[in-house]
Prior knowledge:
- With 57 residues, the chain is mainly α.
- It has helices spanning 2-26, 29-54.
- It starts with a helix and ends with a helix.
Amino acid sequence: xxxxxxxxxxxxxxxxxxxxxxxxxxxxxxxxxxxxxxxxxxxxxxxxxxxxxxxxx
Length: 57
């Protein structure tokens, strides 16, 4: 299950990065901000999964 969650976190990071860069390319700050938020959320999910692995018995 953890690998599935890690994959979802990585996918969210990638989607956010693509959205952020697309927003920058066309000059749409709102799209860029939305992408940054998704990317950050993906990083947080990945950190949560790493913490769960660290404290796993």
